[in-house]
């Protein structure tokens, strides 16, 4: 089956951020995101540093965001990695859908612990969704988060996602939120 499209941009700037593809300078930040127990608390726990290093060496930093709609969130002034952000497709064979065929646009976000509480995840997500709204036809966007992940639930609600159901995946209860893509347009 042909992958449905997501946005085609590879670089988008906002007031404080640059959404861009990963570079070799992101290596330490990428390792931190995968190994920090706070960041990974609701994402299956921290991964062993050695495994993460070997994976990055194998695919290259650029390989981690090579998929369309997948970005590093970087500080606009310093270019330092703040987090990762993606708008990809929710595979029909996973649980958590709002359409019969699945494959909805799915938003995901992860920020370094030191960047939480400054509105940067909100700024990055609204920038991405606004760009996607300008390029793609109106359609549902979904966001999945553990019901225990209160920070992520708050962010999803602030972005305008409405929680429509809960389901079990990875041994935890997940909340499914949805919003219309064009609700993010200007
Ligand atoms: C989920 C996650 C991205 C949320 O980050 P966040 O920083 O809380 O989200 P926001 O960018 O919306 O920031 C909101 C906070 O910034 C504060 N803030 C400060 N300056 C701000 C500004 N200029 N604009 C908006 N908010 C601002 C808000 O008051 C709020 O603070 P609070 O949490 O104390 O209420 C982050 O916790 C994370 O990376 N978690 C680990 C990964 C994860 O679980 N991802 C979910 C799976 S999809």
Largest sheet at a glance? 8 strands, mixed
In the CATH scheme, what's the topology name? Aminopeptidase
Count all strands and give the number: 8
Q: What is the general shape?
A: globular
Q: What Rg do the Cα atoms give?
A: 16 Å
Approximately how much beta-strand content do the residues carry?
25-35%
Whole-number average pLDDT? 96
Number of helices: 4
> For the record, what is the CATH homologous superfamily label?
Gcn5-related N-acetyltransferase (GNAT)
- From the 3D coordinates, which CATH architecture would you assign? 3-Layer(aba) Sandwich
**Which stretches of 5+ consecutive residues score pLDDT under 50?**
none
Please give the share of residues in helix.
10-25%
N-end to C-end Cα span: 32 Å
Q: Which structural category do the helix and sheet elements fall into?
A: alpha+beta
Bound ligands, each once = coenzyme A
Number of domains: 1
SSE succession: EEHHEEEHEHEE
Order of strands in the sheet with most strands: 1-2-3-4-5-6-8-7
**Under the CATH scheme, which class?**
Alpha Beta
Sum this structure up briefly.
The chain has a single domain (12-184), classed as Gcn5-related N-acetyltransferase (GNAT) (Aminopeptidase), CATH 3.40.630.30. The chain is 25% helix and 28% strand. The protein is built from 4 helices and 8 strands; from the N terminus they run E-E-H-H-E-E-E-H-E-H-E-E.
